[in-house]
Specification:
Length: 357
């Protein structure tokens, strides 16, 4: 099995800690390791580092080498332009398929929190068994919602279509829904045929390449040309020509939702995508408790996230706030509106305040 970790995201909802030159996957948000290092460590408990690949924008390659010094240079896939997930998967497929089209490919985000690492390994191995028996299928790992979260993607699945392998049920996916409003999220939370989408995917390399040919034919042609150049002196030249022209489309809407062999398996992972400050807080600390990093003195407050740098942060009688202090910026926002931090970043960009991005 080959593992692709996608580490090219911008993480704008975690500004002002997550910045363009060092987005959230390279930040120590949860422990003394970065999110990327945490992701790689989870896999190393049962799999070899030689099978782990990291895909990222070319500008972050040096940071990845610094964070993962034991990772082979050839296992860092530099993307010459920012595209969507489908393009990243296409590029990795071109590289992996050179070693064998029967290879199973597991795709991971680089910036998610997974508390139950043994459960992750277990579901990966069970998905591997399923794919060896069902090589044309595409597998999505989902988790049962624990709240009506509006910042996550959801998967609607058909319970009656379940195929059981080992201890897991693989059910046909009917639909992907990206970040619903609160009313819709409450409806999904109450029903028993919706899961959160972890964006962890598994498939045979040959199967995903076939789907590109069927559903995203222009990207497939570019994938084919890149694949032909893998391992040759022409690879960099071909990659720089073809990759920036790949379709700007997500793998969910470009392929997974259109295919009748996409299945989802539910896993109890203690998972969070750490997509916003409020999600980070709720993933680590229960309601009314504080999540604190740095120096903090409080009197009579509830449910705060306090993320400091060098200064002591004091709070008195506050509730449901996010307070983030960095060397050049301070963020204070209502916990329930933390998704809007992305809008702050957009306004800074519009106003030309590049140094703060």
């Amino acid at each position: 099995m080959k593992f692709l970790i996608m580490a090219g995201g911008k993480g704008t909802r975690l500004w002002p800690v997550s910045r363009k030159n060092k987005p959230k996957q390279f930040q120590k948000l949860i422990s003394n390791k970065t999110m990327l290092q945490e992701t790689v460590d989870r896999l190393q408990s049962d799999f070899s580092l030689k099978d782990v690949y990291v895909a990222t924008n070319e500008s972050y390659v040096s940071e990845i080498k610094k964070e993962l010094p034991k990772l082979a240079a050839d296992n860092i896939i530099g993307e010459p332009a920012f595209r969507e997930r489908a393009s990243c998967v296409a590029l990795a497929s071109a590289i992996f398929s050179k070693e064998g089209e029967n290879e199973i490919m597991a795709v991971f985000p680089s910036d998610h929190y997974i508390k139950k690492e043994k459960e992750l390994i277990k579901v990966l191995k069970e998905a591997e068994i399923f794919l060896n028996d069902n090589p044309e299928h595409l597998v999505v790992v989902g988790v049962k919602p624990t709240s009506p979260e509006t910042g996550y993607g959801y998967i609607k699945y058909n319970i009656e279509s379940a195929t059981k392998k080992e201890d897991q049920q693989f059910c046909k996916v009917e639909r992907f829904i990206e970040k619903p409003d609160l009313k819709t999220a409450k409806k999904y939370y109450q029903e028993n045929n919706f899961l959160w989408n972890t964006s962890i995917y598994l498939w045979k390399t040959s199967a995903i390449i076939d789907r590109f040919k069927r559903f995203i034919p222009d990207s497939y042609e570019r994938l084919r040309r890149i694949r032909k150049a893998v391992g040759t002196s022409e690879f960099k030249k071909v990659l720089e020509k073809e990759y920036p022209l790949m379709d700007m489309i997500s793998v969910e809407y470009g392929i997974l939702e259109n295919d009748d062999k996409t299945v989802v398996v539910s896993a109890d992972l203690g998972w969070s995508d750490v997509g916003s400050w409020s999600v980070l807080k709720d993933s680590l600390i229960s309601k009314d408790g504080h999540f604190v990093k740095g120096e903090h003195l409080d009197v009579g407050s509830k449910n705060l996230l306090v993320y400091g740098s060098k200064k002591l942060i004091t709070t008195v009688g506050l509730k449901d706030l996010i307070i983030v202090d960095t060397d050049d910026a301070i963020l204070i926002c209502d916990k329930n509106n933390s998704q809007l931090v992305k809008t702050v970043v957009e306004k800074l960009e519009k106003d030309g305040k590049i140094k703060l991005l």
